[in-house]
Amino acid sequence: MSYGLPLPSGSFTPGKKLLTGATEKRIMTAFDEVYADVPANERPAVLKSSSCGRSVERGSHIPDYNGHYDLPQTNCRLRCPTAQHDVCAASQTPDEETVRQLLARIDREGTPVDITTSTIVVHADLSPFERMFLRQNLLHPVHTARQAADLVAERLSA
Description:
By secondary structure, the chain is mostly helical. The chain is 43% helix and 6% strand. The chain contains seven helices and three strands; from the N terminus they run H-H-H-H-H-E-E-H-E-H.
């Protein structure tokens, strides 16, 4: 916006990189044209999220720490390697002891948490740096209670 570029069409949330279905389709059409002579299993990945890119770049051996796989029909629509899908689908929910140890490292010892297969909800305000520290060390999504409530409300209204 600061460069005078128009906002993407459709919904737009500052801080999120959202593409409309039409834009994704244009990208994939161009991709298919460029790689028409390359076998499908040899084509590069086309990823929707930067955290997916970091996971794939590391050799498809760790899950996407933002947990985009919980909604693969939405988050994995582009071309992610099959091996990465398998890794993300098999990711394990962190145990409470590990979560508590990491919370203690950021001076949040005793903070109430809810641990589920899709996210860890921390019942405290976290700075973006604290949340990133937890996500990247747990390889699992981490949200504050407010963020989790907003996500549920967003999914219910969709």
